[in-house]
Amino acid sequence: MNQDKKQILAQYEKSMTWVGSLANVTEEQWRTPIEVGKWSVAEVIGHLIPWDEFVVSKRIPFLFTEDSLPKAPNIQEMNANAANSSRLQSKEETIGKFLNGRRQLIDALHHLTDEQWQQSFHIGDSELTLFRYFSGLVEHDLHHFLQIEKVLK
After folding, report:
1. 126 strand-pairing partners
2. Angle between helical axes of 130-152 and 41-54 (0-180°, round to 10)
3. For residue range 61-87, what is the model confidence (pLDDT) as tens digits?
4. Separation between Cα atoms, residue 118 and residue 8, nearest integer Å
């Protein structure tokens, strides 16, 4: 297996373990903002869910085709809707949805060939590889996980 693919898959597997461990935090911790005036832990995890779904359904299937990529959603709107859903859901439901969506993303990545991990593609004016694209998404996860770790200590 391509080393870049292996690295991204390992990071995503770790993210599932890490988010799954949040089932052990108290309800109060789960609903605590990561900073004053910012989202709660629940909302931060919840906002990752629709982005995994977007990547699985509106990015991966189109990256190596002649078809143009579907238009990206309005970021603020999608994040706000996801945060709102997380406020209304139980901790178990949000974590379950995250784990399910992340598993689908991992499964989709498994189906990408080693050859595809070497190819470039374009999103807008940016030329990317799968490793560069997914490294950015992993960094986004890690940024939020660090924020959560800080507030839970």
Report:
1. 123
2. 170
3. 999 888 888 989 999 999 999 999 999
4. 14
| HEC readout, the chain | CCHHHHHHHHHHHHHHHHHHHHHHCCHHHHCCECCCCCCEHHHHHHHHHHHHHHHHHHHHHHCCCCCCCCCCCCHHHHHHHHHHHHHHCCHHHHHHHHHHHHHHHHHHHHCCCHHHHHCEEEECCEEEEHHHHHHHHHHHHHHHHHHHHHHHC
What is the phi/psi pair of residue 64, to 5°?
Answer: -115, 35
State pTM to two decimals.
0.94
pLDDT value at position 122? 87
